[in-house]
Specification:
Length: 243
């Protein structure tokens, strides 16, 4: 494996599979099986889950809902996903802890940095939920923040697309994919596969990000091995090398 400790960022939409809402049991099981394989290979694995399969705060905010209330509902959606993922992982024998940025002691531990690191050192998978605990921040930013706090080697971001493109490949068939791109170029191009605040935080701390597709079976394992899947946002990329 290429990394000692990782933050695996999974979008809520990816957990929904072909459904529009909720959790696809088959997709959840497939992701859990790969996470277990990575953990048993010796990688200390933590996860940050989005909540878009249940609630998209920004979308409802645009429909005149209060942004703070919408974001708080989105944070709660990530807790639902975290509990589901914990069950899927523990049913496969992987000891797991859910740690929340929001106080909800009956379902999750409160996030404490040193405790999270200790769980990882003991071989437990840690699932971070509740975003950052504050509105106006995405779960991408939460993943970047947690990666810095636990001294992860990289963020692996699994999405519905297979990397970073110069345009949305679902809308622009001729869009070009970047095997690697610098933080600065990513921000200058205003690319949207990852939140700009998260990329800026990664740039400040030289944290590499690998963006890859969750739709291809085995990609979590391949990304953890350092195989060339998806795109790397990082400090030493092949600048502008679109494919």
């Amino acid at each position: 494996m290429a990394y000692r400790r990782i933050v695996l960022k999974l979008s809520g939409e990816a957990l929904a599979g072909d459904q529009q809402l909720g959790i696809d049991p088959a997709r959840l099981a497939a992701i859990a099986a790969e996470v277990v394989e990575v953990a048993r290979a010796g990688v200390q694995v933590s996860l940050v889950l989005g909540g878009g399969n249940f609630f998209r705060g920004v979308k409802l905010q645009a429909e005149r809902m209060d942004r703070v209330a919408a974001d708080q509902m989105g944070m709660l959606a990530t807790v639902i996903n975290g509990i589901a993922m914990q069950d899927a992982l523990e049913s496969r024998g992987l000891d797991t802890r859910v740690m929340s940025a929001l106080a909800m002691d009956q379902v999750a531990e409160r996030f404490i940095r040193r405790r999270a690191i200790r769980h990882l050192e003991k071989g437990r998978c840690v699932i971070f939920v509740g975003g950052t605990g504050s509105p106006y921040f995405s779960t991408d930013t939460a993943a970047a923040l947690r990666a810095m706090e636990i001294h992860a080697d990289a963020i692996l971001k699994g999405t519905k697309v297979d990397g970073v493109y110069d345009a949305d490949p679902r809308q622009v068939p001729a869009a070009k994919r970047f095997p690697a791109i610098s933080y600065q170029e990513f921000i200058q191009r205003n690319l949207r596969v990852m939140d700009m605040a998260a990329v800026a935080l990664c740039q400040d701390n030289a944290m590499p990000v690998v963006v890859f597709s969750l739709l291809t079976p085995g990609n979590i394992v391949r990304a953890s091995r350092g195989e060339p899947v998806g795109s790397c946002i990082g400090p030493q990329p092949q600048l502008g090398a679109a494919s």
